[in-house]
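Practice record 12: protein with glutamine.
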Amino acid sequence: MTGNGRLTIREAQRLLETRQLSSVELTKDCLERIRQVEPEVHAFVTVSDELALKQAKEADDLLAAGNGQPLTGIPVAVKDNMCTRGVRTTCSSKMLENFIPPYNATVVEKLKAAGAVMVGKANMDEFAMGSSTENSAFFTTANPWDKNRVPGGSSGGAAAAVAAGECVFGLGSDTGGSIRQPASFCSVTGLKPTYGRVSRYGLIAFASSLDQIGPLTRDATDCALVMDAISGYDSNDSTSSPLPLPNLSACLSGDIKGLRLGVPKEYFVQGMQPEVAAAVKEAIGKLEELGAEIDWEVSLPSTSYALAVYYIIAPSEASANLARYDGVKYGFSYTDTDSMWQAMEKTRELGFGAEVKRRIMLGTYALSAGYYDAWYVKAQKVRTLIGREFDQAFNKYDALLTPTSPTVPFKIGERMDDPFQMYLSDVCTLPINIAGVPAVSIPAGFSGGLPVGLQIIGKPYDEATILKIADAYQQATDWHKKRPKI
Ligand code: GLN
């Protein structure tokens, strides 16, 4: 039996609670599935079998004592940029290839406290820079729907692992689309929470004003369960929010009658595949049938600047964040030289891959004297304008609806020689991080057998409404129940 890894959290939870399935059995199923499909999928940098079985036994004890919580005994894949005590955390970079953190990220602590079982650390683009996992220093993850195509990125490993049934849910991080775009490409549900909703403590920093951790799951109900477990204020992250947490699972009423939903026309960008636009419009039509009021004529004119703003702000923050990899404190260290400067230079030359170096150069340039005002400060001003446009839209609408990605998953290798084409994968997701608002991507159909995603964008801290819309859609459709034939 290896099919249990394909259950939803809720289904698994019921079987665990009624003792029809034990966490050890469920975990072994996932580990067996990992052994079966990893030679093709390559979703994991590290499989933590021993730890998983230990945690599963503990979970079974908790369940037997009637002390289970919603995630107790449920197998999870954690993106390899979240620190796990005693388990190698590489960020899919040579720089951290042998780094074993002495502490857990807050989300990892929270999963542990909830009784979840970590089966492994998932592959990603190096330092989360990319949209395909092809920038991993180790290997490229394949899309379970078509092995010749990318799973999206940068959380491609976690999304592929969920799609292929190697775990019941995943945790990803999203700086410009890295949870939602792989969710769309792998036909799973992926949420980027409001900036500040989930603690970033122990998340290896890419661009600190944009990074957020969030769930990759099989449906909106599961997404709410994971959010309820990982959200909340953390004194170790000064940007985490002290606002009270709603019980998201209790907010999924299935009733979206009378909700006002806007469709910003700028997100149906030039170059979008017509079949993707058609599938997304059909999904929006379904929400209308379910009683939502759709305004198809919304305009957010600053959207066209988002890509430029992101590729100034994110690399600027990255160039500062990545300055810490100097070969002195931790990580890869080149020592075969007498000069300190040369050691540092060589460490960074050999430790970082091409895309990471490109970002460091872009960011260092934008922050340098003489260019700072022209690039960085200007980008910050436009960032404010983009945020204001969202504020204004949310005076009128309860949520906004767009495609998640302009295309279906592309072929491995297709965009590697053209960074700009790669950057364009995220045109529909970047503005959301710039504004700091929450958004979820849900399966909305297929084009030529390849997944299409619908993005639902919400007001700050209103994950409840977007998950309610996602859940209502999933109650009325079954795209999210389709599984790849791998
Ligand atoms: N693809 C985008 C980038 O390369 C977003 C990555 C992310 O969200 N981590 O920057």
